[in-house]
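Thread title: Can someone regenerate the structure for this chain?

I was given the following input by a collaborator and told the matching structure tokens would be attached. They weren't. Posting the sequence so someone can regenerate them.
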Amino acid sequence: MAEGADDLQILIAQAVAYQQESRSQEAERAYRAALELDPGHPGVLHNLGALVARRGDPRSALELFDRLLASEPYYASAHFNRGNTLMALGSAQDALQAFRSVTALEPDHHDAHRALGFLWLAAGQRDRSLDRFARTYDLRRGEDRNGMANRSLRTATRMKLQHDADLFRHLPPRPRDGSRFEMLARLYEGVAAELADGPADDSGDEIVDLSDSQLATLGPDYNGPVHLRDTPEILGGAVNDRLDAVAITRMYRETEPGVAWFDDLLTPKALSLLQRFLCESTIWHDFSHIGGFVAAYLEDGLACPLVLQVADEFRAALPELLGPHPLTQAWAFKALRGEQPIDVHADDAAISLNFWVTPDRANRNPDRGGLIVYREIPPPDWPIVDYDADRARIRSFLDSRGDSALTIPYRENRAVLFDSRLFHGSDAPDFRPGYENHRINITMLFGTAAKL
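Best answer:
Regenerated them for you:
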């Protein structure tokens, strides 16, 4: 028995080492050899299931997770990975139940709440979806924060601090707040001035570790939900009911690969409310993804009743294109410099929707400032990687394919719908200075790249 146990531990250690070295085939063989010695080993079943799922065999992975949970029903990670596997198989209702099992076992499981937020939204249950995204936000930035956002709570850029100071000064005055927001603005500007005297470069987007003294000056609410503007759903609809779904679908399908653009996505009331939400809510927590930008994501502050209503209604408005593709992510990006572009990249989804909300008066060049979409599909094995990781290779690929650029000028409330595999980026923005002139784009991703 002792010798068999030793052999089992050696095989498990080998499998783990192979995984760490990205040697998936060797890891799988080692795990399967371990199961021959102990067919019910929970850790081996779990790790092998996750490995098999990653290599694209969800049915086999599901069998392994089911086998594990039959004897270990309280194994939360197995329920979570089983939920992801069921989503890969298109079994949304079963996946929803799997993720609910996770949160029953581990109420603070951020990723399970996040998955439930998207699943409930796909099912048309916007209130339940909002509850889950509120929970992810609380786990990241509220009283129940679990530490996952700690780096963004202890670092800053000079531009981020100045942006937040400007935001505080744009909040509507309320008697109960007194001079609180003006005081916060001055404190943030003071720390920003200290960063300007330090090692940060002239651009102001270098990430700096804040000292204990600076953190004390900013206070415990730094980069948290200091102020959230109430933004309810709109009775009668947020997406313009005059959208010509037939024409949009035809343009998308005839512009091979798929690209379509159109104006007046939102009703005037929805656009106005969304602009105020983005102007007056301290949800711009991410300043590290793209230099010179701040960003907000559904699970980290962007989710509000109106945003979820827009996503749900737009998908319903284009059933032929988006019916098979539920929302998988949404974000808002705000450029802190008027000339700051988002460089060329691709999205990890099936179909992307990009639309702009900053008023046209902010744009100094009406013929530019929008989006360039390159109509050359990359090879099917091209991996979607981090924003900064692949730009040189992308440029080389596009340069070798000739002129495939489609330029769509900026307009307030203009939307661009396109195949997510297509590389795209900003078209030479030139926006006026000032807080209300920051260029804001919202992106919604539908479906997953694996389904293409």
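The CA atoms of residues 158 and 195 lie 6 Å apart.
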